[in-house]
Amino acid sequence: MAFDQLSTKLQEVFKNLKSKGKLSEKDVKVALRAVKLALLEADVNFKVVKNFIKSIESRAIGEEVMTSLTPGQQVVKIVNDELVTLMGQSQSKILFSTKGITTILMVGLQGAGKTTTTAKLANLIKSQGKRPLLVACDIYRPAAIEQLKKVALQVHVPVFDMGTGTDPVEIAKAGLEHAKKNNNDVVMIDTAGRLHIDETLMDELKNIKKAVKPQEILLIVDAMTGQDAVNVAESFNAALGIDGVIMTKLDGDNRGGAALSVKAVTNKPIKYIGMGEKLSELEPFYPERMASRILGMGDMLTLIEKAQKNFEEDKAKELEAKLRKADFNFEDFLEQMQQVKNMGPIGDILSMIPGMNQAKLSDVQVDDTQIARIEAIILSMTKQERLNPSILNMSRKKRIAKGSGSDISEVNRLIKQFEQMKVMMKQFSGMAKGKKGKFKLPFM
Q1: Is 111 left (phi over 0), alpha (psi -120 to 50) or beta?
Q2: Exposed e or buried b for every residue in 197-222, given b needs 16+ CB within 10 A?
Q3: Which helix (H) or strand (E) holds 85?
Q4: Are 222 and 112 in contact (CB under 8 A)?
Q5: Alpha-carbon distances of 163 from 34, 258, 383, rounded to whole Å
Q6: CA separation for the pair 283, 289 (Å, rounded)
Q7: Looking at CB atoms within 10 Å, which of 37, 42, 190, 231 has the fewest?
Q8: Torsion angle of C-alpha atoms 311, 314, 320, 321, degrees rounded to 10
Q9: Cα separation, 149 vs 164, whole angstroms
Q10: Exposed, middle or buried by CB within 10 Å (0-12, 13-18, 19+), for 395?
Q11: How far is the CA of 179 from the CAs of 27, 42, 158, 324, in angstroms?
């Protein structure tokens, strides 16, 4: 998960600070040395770390903190504020044209996920009521055009291409004309990349920029390359003048140095982050939410948005009614599990819950394959058994265990947990309706 390493270390530092009734200047400096080391180990740019610590220190040793009743919490608040400032203060959105076509130039090196990210962004833009068109201008990389068509087909977005025998500048211009004729209001140009930055690459991008005058130039960088991603962003910005960054593979980077450095180094915002391989796993970047997650304060807004996106309102009402009538069965359980899976990896979901300590979370084996095992057990039941779990006798359990490749003890454990959860969920439902009575967990 993103920022795991940094988050764990920072939370430990602040746990020690908050345990002290009063802070001395020495206490703050010792803590900030630990913060500095944690940031450097997370591959944050050295100059960025130096300025970051300096900003915190000037505020943290002030009278407001030293005379506070909760000085440790005040320091955490200052660090949170500075993290938000470091990453861009607020969400940076794409600036769509009020009339006519919005042109977005997608640029980056090979291997950063530019083509897939172009489709992901098109999918997100389409969900906002826009009509995007993708233009295939990478005529050099083998099968680049076919790859773009394949991912675009999955998100139901059209692609304009002229094969590999035409100049990319002419393709971009023709793509704009095609968009005008076909009522597309957003044109996204998937340009060629290179394995490294060179003059040929930049000249071609400059020529496309001059020809189509894009409203947005978005640079795609791979978060897992750390400071190399920051250097790439700096070079592209100097040569081309980018408007923002899309950071891919952030879900696989437990350090997060690039995300914390790129805004400070380039003065260009991170606009989106890739949090998985699925074409739906591109998210707007919110600096304040990310800072909150890094410091172990959760991210309830993103969690709520994910739930709203993946849980249908009608289904939720239907489930509530079933809970009140104690009519919840394995069919409902399976459906709920599948909707939770759509929200993303379980570990990522847990990290959004306020107070969830990253160190403790790393001790808990949050294994998404366990969900697959539970699904296998449930799917090995007959429909009648899923709808009426009370008929699950020993012979049925043996058949289910064999069919799912599980042990009978796993089947028994799942049934027991399911029955406990049913009782607990019914009690929660009763509390939500204002019923009186003491709430007690079924296993207490």
Answers
A1: left
A2: eeeebbebbeebbeebebbbbbbbbb
A3: helix 71-87
A4: yes
A5: 55, 35, 51
A6: 12
A7: 37
A8: -160
A9: 14
A10: exposed
A11: 61, 44, 10, 53
**pTM, full prediction:** 0.70
| pLDDT reported for residue 94 | 92
Provide the H-helix boundaries in 103-256: 114-126, 144-154, 168-181, 199-212, 227-240
How far, in Å, CA of 58 to CA of 49, rounded? 14
Question: What is the sign of the dihedral through the CA atoms of 321, 322, 324 and 330?
Answer: negative
pLDDT for 380 equals 94
Pick the closest to residue 173 from 214, 202, 139 (CA basis).
214
- The sign one gets for the Cα dihedral 164, 170, 176, 182 is negative
Whether the predicted pLDDT of 409 surpasses 70: yes
Q: Write out the DSSP string of 248-285.
A: E-GGG-SS-HHHHHHHHHHS--EEEEE-SSSTT-EEE-
Helix (H, G, I), strand (E, B) or coil at 319: helix
Q: Which residues contact 345 (CB under 8 A, 6 or more apart)?
A: 1, 251, 276, 366, 368
Q: Provide the sign of the torsion angle of the four alpha carbons 149, 188, 271, 114, taken in this order.
A: positive
Instruction: State how far the Cα of 139 lies from the Cα of 161, in Å rounded to an integer.
Output: 10
Encode pLDDT of 253-284 as tens digits. Answer: 767 788 889 999 999 999 999 988 889 889 99
Please report which confidence band the pLDDT of residue 444 belongs to, taking 50, 70 and 90 as the band edges.
very low
Mean pLDDT calculated for residue range 222-240 = 91
CA–CA separation, 90 and 84 (whole Å): 8
Residue 93, both tokens: 């959105």
